[in-house]
Design brief:
By secondary structure, this protein is mainly α. The protein has 16 helices and eight strands. The chain has three domains: 128 residues, no CATH class; 218 residues, Hypothetical protein af1432 (Orthogonal Bundle), CATH 1.10.3210; 73 residues, 2-Layer Sandwich (GMP Synthetase, Chain A, domain 3), CATH 3.30.300.30. The strands form three sheets. The chain has a three-stranded antiparallel sheet with strand order 1-3-2, covered by helices on one side. It is flat and about 150 Å long.
Length: 526
């Protein structure tokens, strides 16, 4: 900074000096003869003296500037030498650090080599020890055989004969204690006989029951004429777009000329859309503003209807003091169907069966009641991710249900092992209500298509030998060709098939993908 400061000082002085006397740098040209100098006025002589003095001053300033410039150059050279020496010192320090790092790295490599040598030596020692242990085992077995042979020769008894004699003596010695032990076990068996009978009876009833899956997600609205479709669509599709956006359902107008299909996984939304569309068709004024008004009104009506339905169902079952929000969710059963069977009717029927079983077997009736009432509560959950069993467990925990009731929900499809007779009773009552003749119907065409689709997805991979959809489409077993597949393909293919099923198949509940790879050898000796 001193170098540039000196430069600025130098040039600043020169500029300030030159500004007032720029005209002094030009020397005047005197062309008159010396003889005429005596005739000049005094004013001209003084002016000439002043100019000469200014020229001397300027020359003095120039000399000082040159000296200052030399000083600046000297200082610049000194600073350059300082910077250079500093850079050389830094480079030497860096070289020392690099050299030290290299030495440290070499030391670490030496340690690694020593450790590797130690490991290899240890492996050799372990191998030698393993061989020596194996030899000792063989020697011990030989010694054991020799000792047993000597004992047999000395006692003139075989090993089995000596064992029988020993047991006979032990039995005679412990006969009293054995009798007491047997008497104690008999008393415990008598005390547990009732519980054992209940478990046996429940187990027998369980194996006589069946299971089911859910559900239809489509409602159909009849149209008075084919022209009504044009009103529903509206100009540039504004009416149908407003209706779908407001209700959250998909409207399909291509089913038939006089029918409209409403599709949605939420049964309450689907019911609101169905009633709203029917009212709009009767009203005739199908436009976005009117659509909003009708849907708002139907939503309020449905909320009241579902709450009343939930209260009525809880009253019929004999359960009171449930949270209002939970009763409102139970009331959504009114608009939920499983293979044509209404969930309110199914829940009421199942609960009556469960209560009867609980009374007959002296079980906890309240746990069975709540388990039967809430076992399918996950089917009306607002969440989409997860099976109705998983969603039902979340809802039960949210409203503070006891663990016994949560277990009833978790185990009513045998997703978990039964934790008690109450949970088994809920499972049996649920299966009986769904399996009785006339309770439900099934679209066999869609059912077969779903099974075929599951098998086609699995068979699309070259490593797959065969695939079978089982348990009503809730599980698919995939057998791999062992010659063209690896063990790692079991996990990878399972994940791929699972993801493809999620994307391309509509299914109730969950689908379990089981991938099996087995290599067998079969030879016949003749």
């Amino acid at each position: 900074m001193s170098f540039f400061g000196n430069l600025s000082t130098l040039f600043g002085n020169q500029s300030s000096t030159r500004q007032p006397g720029n005209n002094l740098q030009k020397k005047p040209v005197l062309r008159k003869d010396k003889n005429k100098r005596s005739h000049r006025p005094k004013g001209q002589d003084s002016k000439k003296a002043t100019q000469a003095q200014q020229a001397q001053n300027l020359e003095q300033i120039n000399r000082e500037a040159v000296a200052k410039a030399r000083e600046i150059v000297v200082e610049a050279k000194a600073e350059a030498l300082t910077i250079r020496s500093k850079a050389e010192n830094e480079s030497r320090e860096l070289a020392k650090k690099a050299e030290q790092a290299q030495r440290n790295l070499e030391k670490q490599l030496d340690r690694v080599e020593v450790k590797l040598d130690w490991i290899s030596q240890r492996e050799e020692n372990l191998t030698e020890q393993r061989d020596s242990i194996q030899k000792l085992k063989v020697e011990v077995e030989d010694q054991k055989t020799k000792v047993i042979k000597k004992l047999e020769e000395a006692s003139k008894l075989t090993t089995d004969e000596a064992k029988n004699i020993l047991f006979e003596r032990l039995e005679s010695k412990l006969s009293t204690e054995m009798a007491q032990f047997i008497r104690q076990k008999e008393e415990e068996a008598e005390a547990d006989a009732d519980d054992k009978v209940k478990e046996i009876l429940i187990d027998a009833m369980k194996h006589g029951a069946t299971d089911y899956v859910s559900e239809y997600t489509v409602s159909v609205v009849q149209l008075p004429s084919e022209d009504t479709k044009g009103k529903i669509i509206g100009k540039s599709g504004r009416n149908i777009n407003a209706f779908e956006r407001r209700t959250g359902v998909d409207v399909d107008l291509d089913m038939s000329p006089t029918e409209v299909r409403l599709s949605c996984f939420d049964p309450v939304r689907r019911e609101i859309a169905r009633i709203s569309l029917e009212k709009l068709i009767k009203d005739g004024r199908i436009q976005p503003t009117r659509i909003e008004e009708i849907i708002d009104k139907v939503e309020k009506d449905i909320a009241k209807i579902t709450l009343e339905a939930g209260k009525q169902l809880c009253h019929d079952i004999g359960i009171y003091n449930l949270p209002i929000e939970l009763m409102r969710m139970v009331g959504k059963f009114k608009y939920r169907f499983s293979y044509g069977q209404n969930l309110i009717a199914h829940t009421l029927e199942e609960t009556k069966i469960g209560i009867k079983i609980a009374h007959e077997l002296d079980l906890d009736v309240r746990v069975v009641k709540l388990g039967c009432l809430l076992h399918d509560i996950g089917k009306v959950s607002d969440e989409v991710e997860g099976s109705h069993v998983e969603l039902g467990i979340k809802i039960a925990k949210k409203f503070g249900m006891s663990q016994d009731v949560i277990d009833c929900i978790a185990q009513h499809h045998e997703d978990e092992p039964f934790s008690g007779p109450e949970q088994m009773a809920v499972y049996i009552a649920d299966a009986i209500s769904g399996a009785r003749p006339g309770a439900r119907y099934e679209n066999h065409e869609e059912y077969i298509q779903r099974l075929q689709k599951l098998e086609e997805i699995a068979m699309s991979y070259k490593e797959v030998k065969q695939a079978y959809a089982i348990q009503a489409g809730r599980e698919i077993r995939v057998l791999l060709e062992p010659e063209i597949s690896k063990d790692s393909d079991v996990k990878v293919l399972g994940m791929k098939i699972r993801d493809e099923i999620k994307e391309s198949v509509t299914y109730p509940g969950t689908v379990t993908v089981t991938v099996i790879r087995e290599l067998r050898g079969h030879e016949v000796a003749k």
